[in-house]
Amino acid sequence: MTVLTADSQGNALETPSGKGRGDENFPVGSFLIRKDLRPHVHAFYRFARNADDVADNPALSADDKVRRLDRMGEILDGAPGDDSPAASAMRLSIAATGTTVQHCHDVLRAFRLDATKLRYKDWDDLMEYCRYSASPVGRQLLDLHGESRDTWPASDALCSALQVLNHLQDCGDDYRNLDRVYLPLALMGEAGVTVEELAAGPASTGMRRVIDSLLDSTDRLIAAAGALPGGVKARGLRWEAATIVGLARRLSRRLRRGDPLATRVALNKGDFAASLVTGIVRGRRPRSTRP
Questions:
Q1: Which among 95, 108, 93, 107 is positioned nearest to 41, based on CA atoms?
Q2: How far apart are CA 247 and CA 249, in angstroms?
Q3: What domains appear along the chain, each with residue ranges and CATH number?
Q4: Which end of the chain, N or C, is less packed with Cβ atoms under 10 Å?
């Protein structure tokens, strides 16, 4: 059941879905993160989650979604009101940590796109979306730890890979529930398939080619993300980054073998445990990025 929070005009603003950090594919502010920073990681997650829920609410019009997201941005920037608890909490977090508000505004930009843009032309178009929907998450985490912005390219690659993997997991539901298709239309055209096939059950041979092509591109992102742990100085964050790179590799392999249009393709507890152990081992010492 959707819970509505009323704004000062008596209108609903946030529409939380009930999803939390435990529903994610990858760890969010886990025990590996420095204890004093975890509340700030969780504040950012809650802000992004609630904004995402607004964009994904099928009962709202596109204009209403944009209005709500704009209001969250206003509160971030200091506007009075308590109609968006997540934005208010994020504003306090930013004040306490000195991090930039830009990462929050970037994810709001992505969710406005979700409200108004239902199709993506090609891979570059999808990556432009990921620049705002995914990259700010990693950048926020790195900034919280005071890491060098030299780590951003590898982090962006990892976050974009995670986003595309999530799109592939949910491609059927996104189309059926929201008429939203992240699979690039150019790839679908080359494979001779239409968006309507996303609601038709098991993937056809052509749709399988589209999925595998996207996984090929995603695997290249994951390969680039492999440099991230070695560039991170904070031990816990280094371990978490190495763990998430491992989980991304595992989910990509599962999507190669499975059909997201026939069944939910997801990681299991064994994947998490194995990736955690491997991540801690591989992330034991930072590799210097300077000569």
A1: 93
A2: 5
A3: 30-116 (no CATH), 118-291 (1.10.600.10)
A4: C
Angstrom distance (rounded) from CA 285 to CA 288: 9
Digits of tens for pLDDT over the chain (291 positions)?
A: 333 344 434 445 888 765 555 456 666 667 789 999 999 999 999 999 999 999 999 999 999 999 999 999 999 999 998 899 999 999 999 999 999 999 999 999 999 999 999 999 999 999 999 999 999 999 999 999 999 999 999 999 999 999 999 999 999 999 999 999 999 999 999 999 999 999 988 999 999 999 999 999 999 999 999 999 999 999 999 999 999 999 999 999 999 999 999 999 998 788 777 777 777 777 665 554 443
> What own/partner pairs with CB < 8 Å and gap ≥ 24 does 142-146 have?
142/232, 142/237, 143/99, 143/100, 143/103, 144/37, 144/40, 144/41, 144/97, 144/99, 145/34, 145/37, 145/232, 145/233, 145/234, 145/237, 146/234
| Whole-number Å distance between alpha carbons of 58 and 225 | 34
**DSSP reduced 3-state for 12:** strand
